[in-house]
């Protein structure tokens, strides 16, 4: 028999080997399985999950206040963007939070690795059996019906009550991003032989760089500032082709740009295979390199090794936040529906975009191609806001068509976020539109939500070079790189004049920049068995504030 002392020591050792009993509370939950997914089985207890833990940032409110301060034209600190270290200081968790979360993990024999510049994101590997206990969860296998692809998720999870002030998110848990990827459904048509000749009259039938230069007053003289660069993001194994770019530029752009090029950065197993080009990647590169003449362009290839649960968007943001010199513009022609993404994940990603804005980066996203039915056309009753256009710290770009005058493209996604409220910079414009709208579509959208898109640009029948031939493509995927190129060229002039790049655009666009945009007042974006929203005078959730006028943007920017 054990002596009393040995028995006490044995019980102590046994207790130390078990997690401390903690009170848990639900942190995130879904009432139902998202449309398009079915639960097929319980996950194997031995399956190892790669989870990410977002720690509470030490001063998110301070970050947002600083972002507005350096991004609002009327502010005395306008243009005085923050350094990497200053942004990291806002985002870094407190030592108390780090210690509390790591102590909890150690109770389960787990250790975490930091995966973000500010150490506010941790990565852990944990078997399903342990994860179900830790988070009072039911990790199961869910199958995406149209593709048959599976993922392990839970409809709810809990965290210890004493960690609520330290831990903001566990991910991916309740986010059900489509496994088909975030590529928007651009329409591709092969160009006839007769139409391949370079257009003498710009915009006569299709859109090429000369058309956009004439329509928006985009300069054809090359940029000069090496520090100013545009990032074009690529996902879904999409790669641009240098031969397609050269073919396109030699046929549809001036001779001085025919030798233009781009650099490639790879992340998460991303690769660059120009022998297997993608139409989206070719489009995005050809209309940044081909329009923003002389501006350095980086193609950011994000592979399938990401475990961020949001297509690589979060890894992309954290990568550029980790660089000492931030890009002046990031353009992304991908997206999904807001309902696919948990509120916690969306908040964390949106804060990352706020951090990029504070660094002086303009983050642009195509608004989507499904009108009011979401990122792509589909059946719906209530209107479907798109992701991540509902984040107020990105500039959402819708699409127009025609040139005399421009009208809304009927696929241009727009509406109001169900996650983010109407931000101050657009409250007056949104209020005016809602008054115009009256009771039309009442109850189908969130009238107190952040409205999108913010701006627009041409999005129909863009000529691209693709696999040695020429095609036309349509979608808001055309509009985002177009607007990004305009901003990249404005930034070049600003830097050359000793000024800062524009950074987060929205406070500028909704104030002094509003006069530098052509208001689009006709067209709508049907969906959900309705005509959707209607473009009208002023901001609207179809074309935003309108399309760019380069010379007027220079004036609004103080040049």
Which helices and strands, and how do they pair?
Elements: H1 4-16, E1 24-29, E2 37-42, E3 48-55, H2 60-71, H3 84-91, H4 95-107, E4 113-114, E5 121-127, H5 128-134, E6 140-144, E7 150-153, E8 156-160, E9 167-171, E10 187-190, H6 209-216, E11 229-234, H7 242-252, E12 263-267, H8 279-289, E13 296-302, H9 313-321, E14 329-332, E15 336-337, H10 343-359, E16 362-366, E17 386-387, E18 395-401, E19 407-408, E20 415-421, H11 427-437, E21 449-452, E22 455-458, E23 462-466, E24 469-474, H12 476-496, H13 506-509, E25 517-518, E26 547-548, H14 550-556
Parallel strand pairs: 11-13, 11-14, 12-13, 14-16, 16-18, 18-22
Antiparallel strand pairs: 1-8, 2-6, 3-5, 3-9, 4-5, 6-7, 10-24, 15-17, 18-19, 20-21, 23-24, 25-26
Organism: Postia placenta MAD-698-R-SB12
Catalytic activity: Release of an N-terminal tripeptide from a polypeptide
EC number: 3.4.14.10
Characterization of this structure:
Residues 1-17 form the signal peptide. Residues 206-559 form the Peptidase S53 domain. It comes from Postia placenta MAD-698-R-SB12. This is tripeptidyl-peptidase II. The active site is at residues 280, 284, 477. With 559 residues, this protein is an alpha/beta fold. It has 2 domains: 21-57 and 94-176; 187-556, Rossmann fold (3-Layer(aba) Sandwich), CATH 3.40.50. The protein is built from 14 helices and 26 strands. It has helices at residues 4-16, 60-71, 84-91, 95-107, 128-134, 209-216, 242-252, 279-289, 313-321, 343-359, 427-437, 476-496, 506-509, 550-556; strands at residues 24-29, 37-42, 48-55, 113-114, 121-127, 140-144, 150-153, 156-160, 167-171, 187-190, 229-234, 263-267, 296-302, 329-332, 336-337, 362-366, 386-387, 395-401, 407-408, 415-421, 449-452, 455-458, 462-466, 469-474, 517-518, 547-548. The strands form 8 sheets. Strands 11, 12, 13, 14, 16, 18, 19 and 22 form an 8-stranded mixed beta sheet that branches. Strands 4-5-3-9 form a 4-stranded antiparallel beta sheet. Strand 4 (113-114) and strand 5 (121-127) form a beta hairpin. The N and C termini lie far apart (89 Å).
């Amino acid at each position: 028999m054990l002596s009393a002392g040995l028995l006490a020591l044995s019980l102590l050792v046994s207790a130390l080997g078990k997690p401390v009993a903690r009170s848990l509370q639900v942190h995130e939950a879904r009432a139902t399985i998202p449309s398009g997914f079915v639960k097929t089985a319980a996950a194997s207890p031995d399956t190892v999950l790669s989870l990410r833990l977002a720690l509470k940032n030490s001063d998110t409110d301070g970050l947002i206040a600083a972002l507005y301060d350096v991004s609002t034209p009327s502010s005395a600190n306008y243009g005085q963007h923050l350094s990497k270290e200053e942004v990291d200081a806002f985002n870094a968790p407190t030592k108390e939070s780090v210690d509390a979360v790591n102590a909890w993990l150690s109770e389960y024999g787990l250790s975490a690795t930091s995966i973000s510049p500010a150490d506010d994101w941790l990565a852990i590997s944990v078997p399903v059996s342990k994860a179900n206990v830790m988070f009072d969860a039911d990790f199961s296998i869910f199958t995406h019906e149209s593709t048959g692809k599976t993922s392990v998720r839970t409809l709810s999870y809990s965290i210890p009550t004493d960690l609520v002030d330290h831990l903001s998110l566990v991910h991916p848990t309740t986010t059900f991003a489509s496994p088909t990827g975030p590529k928007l459904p651009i329409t591709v048509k092969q160009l006839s032989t007769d139409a391949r000749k370079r257009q003498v009259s710009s915009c006569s039938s299709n859109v090429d760089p000369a058309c956009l230069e004439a329509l928006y007053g985009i300069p054809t003289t090359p940029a000069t500032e090496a520090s100013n660069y545009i990032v074009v993001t690529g996902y879904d194994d999409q790669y641009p082709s240098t031969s397609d770019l050269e073919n396109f530029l030699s046929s549809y752009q001036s001779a001085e740009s025919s030798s233009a090029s781009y650099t490639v950065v790879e992340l998460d197993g991303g690769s660059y295979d120009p022998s297997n080009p993608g139409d989206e990647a070719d489009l995005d590169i050809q209309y940044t390199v081909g329009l923003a003449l002389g501006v350095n362009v980086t193609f950011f290839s994000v592979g399938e090794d990401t475990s961020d649960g949001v297509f690589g968007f979060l890894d992309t943001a954290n990568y550029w936040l980790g660089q000492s010199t931030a890009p002046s513009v990031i353009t992304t022609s991908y997206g999904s529906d807001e309902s696919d993404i948990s509120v916690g994940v969306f908040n964390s990603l949106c804060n990352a975009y706020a951090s990029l804005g504070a660094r002086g980066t303009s983050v642009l996203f195509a608004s989507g191609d499904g009108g009011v039915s979401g990122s792509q056309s589909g059946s719906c009753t209530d209107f479907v806001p798109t992701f991540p256009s509902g984040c107020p710290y990105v500039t959402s770009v819708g699409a127009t068509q025609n040139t005399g005058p421009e009208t809304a493209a009927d696929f241009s996604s727009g509406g109001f976020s169900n996650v983010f409220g109407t931000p101050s910079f657009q409250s007056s414009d949104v209020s005016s539109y809602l008054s115009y709208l009256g009771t039309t579509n009442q109850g189908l959208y969130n009238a107190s939500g952040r409205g999108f898109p913010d701006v627009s640009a041409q999005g129909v029948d863009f000529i691209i070079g693709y696999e040695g031939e020429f095609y036309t493509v349509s979608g808001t995927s055309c509009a985002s790189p177009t607007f990004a190129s305009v901003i990249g060229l404005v930034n070049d002039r600003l830097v050359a004049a000793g000024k800062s790049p524009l950074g987060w655009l929205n406070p500028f666009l909704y104030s002094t920049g509003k006069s530098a945009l052509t208001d689009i007042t006709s067209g709508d974006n049907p969906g959900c068995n309705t005509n959707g929203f209607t473009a009208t005078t002023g901001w609207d959730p179809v074309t935003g504030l309108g399309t760019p006028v380069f010379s007027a943007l220079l004036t609004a920017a103080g040049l």
